[in-house]
Amino acid sequence: MTDLSPAYHYQVIARALDVIDAEGPALTLDSLAQRMTMSPAHFQRVFSQWVGVSPKRYQQYLTLAHARRLLTERHTMLGTALATGLSGTGRLHDLFLTWEAMSPGDYAKGGAGLEIKWGWFESPFGPTLVMATDRGICGMGFADEMGAEAALEDLAGRWPKATYVEDPTAIRPMVDAAFRGEATSLHLIGAPFQIKVWEALLSIPSGHVTTYADIAGAIGHPTAHRAVGTAVGRNPISFLIPCHRAMRRDGGLGGYHWGLPRKRAMLAWEAARTDL
Known about the structure:
Layout: H1 6-23, H2 29-35, H3 40-51, H4 55-62, H5 64-73, H6 78-83, E1 91-92, E2 95-101, H7 104-108, E3 115-121, E4 128-133, E5 136-142, H8 148-156, E6 163-166, H9 168-180, E7 184-188, H10 192-201, E8 210-211, H11 212-218, H12 225-233, E9 246-247, H13 260-275
Helix pairs in contact: 1-3, 2-3, 5-13, 11-12
């Protein structure tokens, strides 16, 4: 693995997050680079390769205040987005995604009869577990917070009766396409209410956010905030179905199944790239 790989970049970002949280946004480039055991020039190069902006500017995107600004300035009203046809098949913002949902009856079988291939891959956000059926990607998770074994058990536990085959070579083309923003198919395996929530998440543009309340209203259940939050948290295809773009109405980040530092990094990464 070279020092210009996406996984290496995210490891640097993850370590920097801890330092920034402890030291605050006034931290200088020289000091932050020293904490990362890098020269300032090398540290800045890694940042620029990963997100395209300076470490100082990126620090601004990582703050909770920026998350609240996103809610004020880039708050996507999902009712409008859904009404204009942004959900469903076709071009979904920065990714070309087509999706197919499993029927409620098949979902109730716990994945019986499904063969799910899986493997570990590098991504902009660290080691990434990806699972796929013959219809498309059905699972994506991250290992940094809980570890590789726990992440695998977590995703496999969603469909306990499926047959799992470790075969990263078979699914690599769709994984590589997904992270390049090219044509990608998704296979949504969930209960009907969950799938409605995940459809709504797909309508949120990169660099924008919405609220759990907006999602509840968009799917026709305006009082179901808590149930929506649970469904967002159970989204099995993290990042591609952008549950990280859902926030509390007060501007708080809310939860994130794969760890809040990763949610903050994803929001910052997308916002910075949108501003370029």
